Amino acid sequence: MTSLSALLKSTWEQLLIATLGSAVSTALYIWALKQISMIISAEGDQSMHVFLLIVILVISSTVIALYTTYHFNKFFERKTAKIREDAATGVLEADFETVESIKERIVPILNGEINSLTSFTKNIPNVLVSSFKVLGIWIYMITLDWKVSLAIIAVFGFVIAILQLILPVLMRMERKLAKLRQLNHRNLRGVEAGLKDLFLHTSHRKVYVNNVIRPTNREMARQVTRVTTLNSVISKTVELLILIGVCSLVLLINSLSSHDHNLMIKFLAILLFMLPPFLTVVNFFKHIKKASVAIEQLQLLQFNAKEVEKSEMPITKDHAPLIQLLDVRYLYQGSDPFEVGPFTMDIYNNEILLIKGGNGSGKTTLSKLIVGLYTPKEGTIKFQNTPVTDQLLESYRNKFSAVFADFHVYKDLSYIAKEKAQERVRQYLEMLELTEKVEVSDDLKLSDINLSYGQMGRLNLLRALVEDRDIYVFDEWAANQDPYFKEKFYREIIPELKSIGKTVILISHDAKYFDVADRVVTLADGELQLG
Predict the structure, then answer these.
(1) Are 495 and 518 in contact, with CB atoms under 8 Å apart?
(2) Which of 442, 434, 441 is nearest to 460 (CA)?
(3) Interior angle at CA 397, CA 510 and CA 99, nearest 5
(4) Contacts with 112 (C-beta within 8 Å, 6 or more apart), sequence order
(5) What is the pLDDT of residue 304?
């Protein structure tokens, strides 16, 4: 989906059903409208029959319109849900570095902008019914007096032309509002992410609210007010122009000729019936602009993924290093780009490699290069002497289980299709002393993940252990654990992984536990040093 028209074209069958339902509903409505003029001249039982006919026609028209709306909304709710799922899938299949650069915009777009799209689609049945009503009423007016009808239609056409001049302004305002919503989401997300820091410092708390949240939040409130006001101005202007135009037209006609006053009264009564559906159509133009902005935002999540034929990484039995980095450099893009590397190192099968270094020395960048999340600007990464190409990248990544410092805890572990996985989860829950906090269901779903930060870290470790991959990467896992679990991690869990043939890459500051490693390398100024 690249545009609003593409979205509508992809659902032409549902639009056709909605159109036919709207046409039938409108025909019954116009028939009922025509009967209203007859009830005045009807007498006795005939007037009651006409009245009953009107009631039946109006009820039938309403039921058909409601069913059409229900059917259409049900379809489009599923359609927009699929759009959200496809967008999320596209994000997760795109290049990691590209997605990482816009990660703070993903959730606001998947929630806010798709909700705007849903609001737009929900209005389509109503606008179809209203459009048919307006068209039907115009046809009926022409049968009464085509000259007066054309003059009235000209007034409405003038109103629509004025509207088209205003709508681009509304679209620009909606674009700005979308950006403010995303920025506001990021700022509010900072409250959750930095909760401990903010609670510890009164001045920081006040500054964050006053200097970060408040300016964007209030600017967004002002922008919402502008958009809402402009929408109201458009609606009221339309009503005013129609009222002034039609009244001026009536005065002009009365001054130029001797039209039947009863006919003019009929026209005014018909116009009263036509105004609500016409305003519905006018308001829909505003929804189109809002939906167009939502589509533009969704396009930010459409990435040009490389079309690569994926292959499995070949397994060899030679004695070459398991992983080799050969003069690997990485470039951080952005307003102030910088380069790290070159990195040249070997990682051997079934070894415990510990990487240490100061803050900002590039340890996490190196770990992301090793696991294949980042693509080197220069140099080569090899696995068992085979270069990691685009075709082999996914297979290569699947050899790793990693626990990064900025981890997320997953409640659903059913993706782990391993024999005895449930038993392993229970064993690790007991080993990590979480059995009183968390239970695991038969389908590998954890009962609770809203625990303390240290406990969540242990749950994330559990997830990595149950995945049972060949290579483990732990980025400062023990940094937020108490001494007991820190000791358990380094002295029990890491040696156990080595004993069952795993390769472990540790990023750590814990000098007390450096002896657990087979080899220690230091990262400083973009260079790896022994010891």
Answers:
(1) no
(2) 434
(3) 90
(4) 178, 181, 182, 185
(5) 60
